[in-house]
Amino acid sequence: MFPNIKLNMMEVPVYRKLTNEEIGQLIVQGCYCEDWNLVEVVANFLPDNVRFTKFSGYNKLGRFDEEITLFGGVKMKTGIIHAHIHNCTIGDNTLISSVKSYIANYNIGKQVIIHNLDQLAVEGTTSFGNGSRVQVINESGGREIPIFDHLSAQVAYILALYRHRMKAVNEIEGFIANYVDFISGPVGEVSNGVQMINCGTIRNVKVGPYAFLEGVAKLENGSVNSTAADPVKLGQGVILENFIVCSGARITDSTLVSNCFIGQGCILDKHYSAVESVFFANCQGFHGEACSIFAGPYTVSHHKSSLLIAGLFSFMNAGSGSNQSNHLYKLGPIHQGVIERGAKTTSDSYILWPSRIGAFSLVLGRHYRHSDTTDFPFSYLIEEKDESRLIPGINLQSIGTIRDSQKWPRRDRRKDTNLLDSINFNLLSPYTIQKMINGRAILLELLHASGETAPHYTYKGMVIKNSALLRGIELYEKAIWKFLGNSLISRVQRKNIESTEELQEVLKKDTPLGSKTKWLDLTGMICPSDAIDHLMDSIENKRVHSLEEVNTAIRSIHENYYTYEWSWAADVIAQFYKIPVTEFTPVDVIEVTKRWMKAVLEIDHLLYNDAKKEFSLIKQTGFGIDGDRAVQQLDFDKVRGEFETHAEVNSIREHMAKKEALGNEVIAKMEKILLLQTINN
Known about the structure:
Elements: E1 15-17, H1 20-28, E2 32-33, E3 39-42, E4 50-56, E5 59-61, E6 67-69, E7 75-77, E8 79-90, E9 95-108, E10 113-121, E11 133-135, E12 144-146, H2 153-161, H3 166-183, E13 188-190, E14 195-207, E15 212-214, E16 218-224, E17 233-234, E18 239-245, E19 250-251, E20 256-262, E21 267-269, E22 273-279, E23 284-286, E24 289-291, E25 294-295, E26 300-301, E27 307-309, E28 311-313, E29 317-318, E30 323-325, E31 337-339, E32 344-345, E33 350-352, E34 356-357, E35 362-364, E36 366-367, E37 380-384, E38 387-391, H4 399-410, H5 430-450, E39 456-459, E40 462-465, H6 466-492, H7 500-506, E41 519-522, E42 525-528, H8 529-540, H9 547-559, H10 561-577, H11 586-613, H12 629-640, H13 647-680
Parallel strand pairs: 2-4, 3-5, 4-8, 5-8, 8-9, 9-10, 9-13, 10-14, 14-15, 14-16, 15-17, 16-18, 17-19, 18-20, 19-21, 20-22, 21-23, 22-24, 22-25, 23-26, 24-27, 25-28, 26-29, 28-31, 29-32, 30-33, 31-34, 32-35, 33-36, 35-37, 38-40
Antiparallel strand pairs: 1-3, 6-7, 11-12, 37-38, 39-40, 41-42
Helix pairs in contact: 3-8, 5-6, 6-10, 6-11, 8-9, 11-13
């Protein structure tokens, strides 16, 4: 437990020399120093709790006059006992005991507990892991990211994947180098409230406030960026080398990490192994292995034998035994892959790199043909008779997809006041809808080229059955109109509009950015490419001068998402209607709203029916193990709940009622305008 003591962070200690009486008492208590003049203490220092300690170099000591309670109710006096202290400053009411080797070159804060430690030392000038170059996505190199304390998923994305803009990348790396120079030094820091208990060797590491380290085997060249609001926990058997760990992270149970950045709220546990990888907000890794991966927010791997290698991921859930391979090479492991946001892999799935899997898709089975489904989000990619079969858009009717999108915001573990990663949780966005428009066009082209009666179609080595193609076209159309209607209704629903002219004014774009441009997912942040290009131009032309300005610009792009979204959606709606939205009449808005209502309610009905499958007779297998059918049903109801009262089912019903009411409200508002125009005319 952490001592419940309020810290006065504004105090600046004033030190003095030891008195002869204090030196004598320390010697009697088993302490030794070649030159006691090199030991300074605060004015109210009491030597009573400094025992069996060797001092070397120049040291400064605070006061030690309180008692703390450790796990199990064990009480100990603060102070220093059985330790060798070299060139250290130690804050008030810190406990240092049973240091097997020594503590060297550290500033140690107040109320710190260091108990049963092998070694804590800094040698030479160190950057504490900052500036370490992590070789992500491509094992052969070329996408290295110099990690640093405040690295965000978006800056990392630019550094790794914008090699076509090397001038801007070099500028950002220059900003990082300046930061590394600024924080480098020969003295480490263990901040206020830190606990290090039963730990091994810790070298060239700085530790932030209230971090809890217990049973850690080895830390070398890194930063534990804990905060009082969101402490870091490092546990038994952990080995970290060349690393940065951000606030709220938990790394325990013999996890091995080398050359990695671990973002805010991440959990690595149960013997996980990671090398040359970056993990951003709320990632989880248990049992498995990561090698040269870029794990965007919410990348999750919970199972044994799962290997994530040489790829870009975000909002991804890797099933047990999931694997990718970059070993089909002649010039080294140069191949890489992308699994776009929200995708899942089932147990024992396999993907041969290079491949690219579309957003919110499911990969089942083994795929050897370098699949590219980027224009088919919300799809299944299934192995069937050694072929890769694509089922476009089928995940749009999956209740599991909706559940995933709802759980991510609830599972944001970050409590820090400074959130590094910008995250957009929207399931439908210009990023996914743009792909659906492309995918729908491809499916229509295949249908036209091969005929409506063809049993199957082939696209980039993938087989699409006739029924799947027709259903994919239908599902994509529903989702497209659901999104476009959402975007238009959001513009008009809360505005006081009393005429066609006022309606057209409301429908004007607020910015040209986002219009007629490709939309991107910068591993968590959805944005238009022209906004990023504008930022890159500013960096290249030296209108951006620091990391702070880069981060501020990225946050601004993130915060203006809905402004950019409307610029894009307005153009798409105009393409469908062959007139600009600024020429729309209430009749046009009513038509879009009706199409939106139809699409929303039809998709919700599909979700409702999909949820109902989870309560089918076959899903009750294994329930009521010692009874008849009635017992089976009763047991199932007690464990899983009844369909009609299930939370997910209720949420679908509520969503349908809410959207239908919203649609009717917008239609009524437009009809009122039409009525007023009729009266005035």
